[in-house]
Inverse folding.
């Protein structure tokens, strides 16, 4: 309890038996959830709770069994502007950062704006869409590693497709954008957003369940193996985009996982390729 009081004094909210709801719409309860509300509080939380699970917007994480302690970064918000560079706190929403960039006529985030979740979560998974990913605009990240704050430059983050080797808790990310025409940025954002709405399911999901298989969307193989529309309880392979598992109303995390495993092994059997999870699974 002394540690909790110390963290609260530093600027953390501590919530006990805290419900954590993902964008898939299912909720688990963490015994203790720590919400840092400023940079110093986040540093202290990361140092004090080294074994805690770190979460952003929970838009890409399936929690089957919550660990005792989680650090929820989504209240660590703020953007500091310096010319074409934006320093974004890790809990800021990716969409919020993209809107901010648009207001300043800074180009580089147009395709990323529609991706749910936080900037920290996006960096951790090198999120991207329509040919643009976080690695294209990241200069460096400030991270708590082995109890110390370290600045890690892009070349040392080992970015690859939907992957990045972040060695600790991300506090903030420096993004390098390009001055451009605000109206053109707005128009491009509108086009990407419309494409997203036209191709992705409207129901709750965690985004694409599996990574691309080479250059081919895993949705192609899932459909080929006959799983489009297949359901386990309230979890269903989307009829609109087979890469997504959606919640039709009452799905649990276990339903999602059972269905994802069924699809994974089915695609392996029928198509001879093994899909790799894009989502993070906490067992
Ligand atoms: C409808 C929908 C559409 C989507 N479309 C796309 C898309 O087009 N492209 C794409 O790439 N993704 C997409 N996603 C997936 C998801 O939105 C992104 O991966 C997003 O960037 C995850 O951010 P988050 O904050 O929700 O991360 P979370 O799910 O909370 O966490 C993801 C991972 O990052 C780690 N993490 C989070 N914050 C931190 C931190 N501060 N420090 C260290 N580690 C951290 C977590 O431990 C976890 O391993 C989509 C999801 C949905 C629901």
């Amino acid at each position: 309890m002394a540690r909790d009081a110390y963290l609260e004094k530093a600027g953390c909210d501590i919530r006990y038996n805290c419900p954590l709801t993902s964008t898939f719409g299912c909720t688990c309860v963490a015994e203790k959830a720590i919400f840092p509300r400023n940079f110093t509080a986040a540093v202290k939380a990361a140092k004090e709770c080294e074994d805690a699970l770190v979460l952003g917007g929970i838009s890409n994480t399936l929690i089957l069994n919550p660990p005792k302690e989680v650090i929820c970064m989504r209240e660590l918000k703020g953007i500091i502007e310096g010319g074409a560079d934006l320093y974004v706190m890790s809990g800021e929403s990716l969409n919020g950062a993209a809107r901010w960039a648009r207001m300043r006529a800074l180009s580089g985030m147009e395709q990323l704006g529609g991706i749910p979740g936080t900037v920290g979560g996006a960096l951790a998974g090198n999120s991207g869409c329509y040919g643009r990913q976080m690695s294209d605009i990241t200069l460096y990240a400030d991270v708590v590693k082995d109890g110390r704050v370290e600045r890690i430059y892009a070349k040392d983050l080992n970015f690859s497709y939907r992957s990045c080797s972040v060695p600790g808790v991300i506090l903030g990310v420096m993004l390098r954008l390009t001055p451009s025409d605000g109206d053109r940025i707005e128009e491009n954002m509108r086009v990407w957003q419309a494409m997203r709405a036209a191709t992705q399911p409207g129901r709750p999901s965690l985004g694409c369940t599996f990574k691309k298989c080479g250059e081919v969307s895993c949705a192609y193989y899932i459909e080929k193996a006959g799983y489009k529309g297949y359901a386990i309880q309230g979890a269903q392979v989307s009829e609109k985009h087979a890469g997504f598992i959606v919640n039709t109303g009452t799905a649990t995390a276990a339903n999602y996982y059972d269905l994802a495993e069924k699809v994974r092994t089915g695609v392996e059997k029928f198509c001879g390729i093994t899909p790799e999870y894009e989502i993070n699974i906490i067992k």
